[in-house]
Design brief:
Blueprint lengths: L1 E2 L2 E2 L1 H13 L5 H8 L3 H7 L16 H12 L4 H8 L3 H8 L8 H42 L4 H15 L14 E4 L2 H13 L8 E7 L4 H12 L10 E3 L17 E5 L4 H15 L4 H14 L6
Parallel strand pairs: 4-5
Antiparallel strand pairs: 1-2, 3-6, 4-6
Helix pairs in contact: 4-5, 5-6, 8-9, 8-11
Length: about 300
């Protein structure tokens, strides 16, 4: 069989493939040259890409590449569509061969993150309003308190100690030792001032921090020393809490500084005085309670009350 000077199907096929590559003849030119139909030529040219000049430029090729890049970064189809300002169907067609999640666990984690982001966006205005209201109410309360008198410091300090400090146990009623531990710097400073009103000296108190062994002990000691206003050399050896891998800890940030333990030496009589203050507060009645209720009303009405 002979086709326009060519003999043998394999030779014809090889020549057609060669001309398709260089000089890059079109399919219509090749079919005319070799006298074959579309199906035969298609079979001959399998595996050969069309010449660049036969391809029509597509305006969305660049968009498709961008879509695939975003998909590779873990973006969802709706996110890609929004970022590129295209339809979701186009974004899907461009990226449908790229699974977003490699495992079911990754899919669950992504859905969880998405739900959290949606919730945060929904509640953000309300949360901001809540924070503003809280700041106003806090400021009002702080302004109302003003400067505490020594009597007020004795009452508040005694109550704070009775809630947070070490107390004699029923089986050891005479083991009266003043020892206070807390992680709140304001409450710690209140206790120190309370001791001073009782005649103590903050420089004579014994300080020790109780902190997790993985924390920066030195930095925590310096921070607490600054809070109570004493040299860090006054601090005793820290008590370290052993790490428990089973426990899920949340206090692991840079602001974690453990608790401060304040031990008052020779404090038996100080403890007795605190006992007396608490007893007095517990049985207060008559005029003192009326004054308290009046002060409380002034605070609720937004007045100074002082």
């Amino acid at each position: 069989m002979e086709m326009n000077g060519y003999s043998g199907n394999e030779d014809v096929r090889a020549e057609a493939r060669k001309l398709r590559v260089d000089p890059g003849l079109s399919r219509s030119q090749l079919m005319k040259m070799f006298g074959v139909g579309n199906g035969t030529l298609t079979e001959w040219l399998k595996g050969i890409d069309p010449p660049d000049w036969t391809r029509r430029p597509r305006a969305k090729d660049d968009m498709r590449e961008l879509a695939r890049e975003l998909r590779g970064e873990g973006r969802t189809v709706p996110e890609i569509a929004e970022a590129l300002e295209v339809s979701k169907s186009s974004a899907y067609l461009w990226t449908r061969d790229m699974p977003l999640d490699a495992t079911p666990e990754e899919a669950a984690a992504r859905r969880s993150r998405h739900s959290k982001n949606v919730a945060e966006a929904r509640w953000k205005p309300l949360n901001e309003q809540r924070d503003r209201s809280r700041a106003v109410i806090n400021s009002t309360g702080a302004d109302w308190v003003g400067e505490l008198t020594d009597r007020e410091l004795l009452l508040v300090g005694a109550m704070a100690y009775w809630c947070e400090g070490q107390k004699a146990k029923p089986w050891e009623p005479n083991r009266c030792r003043v020892k206070f531990i807390n992680s709140d710097p304001d409450l710690v400073l209140l206790f120190v001032r309370f001791m001073e009103v009782l005649g103590g000296d903050r420089r004579e108190l014994r300080y020790r921090i109780h902190i997790h062994q993985s924390a920066d002990v030195g930095a925590a000691e310096r921070w607490w020393a600054d809070v109570v206003g004493v040299p860090v050399e006054r601090f005793m050896r820290a008590t370290l809490k052993t790490h428990n891998p089973v426990t899920v800890r949340h206090n692991t940030g840079d602001d974690y500084r453990g608790c401060l333990i304040i031990d008052v030496p020779k404090s038996r009589e100080v403890y007795w005085r605190i006992e007396g203050l608490i007893a007095g507060i517990g049985r207060a009645d008559g005029v003192p309670m009326k004054v308290t209720r009046q002060a409380s009303s002034a605070f609720h009405e937004g007045g100074q009350g002082r």
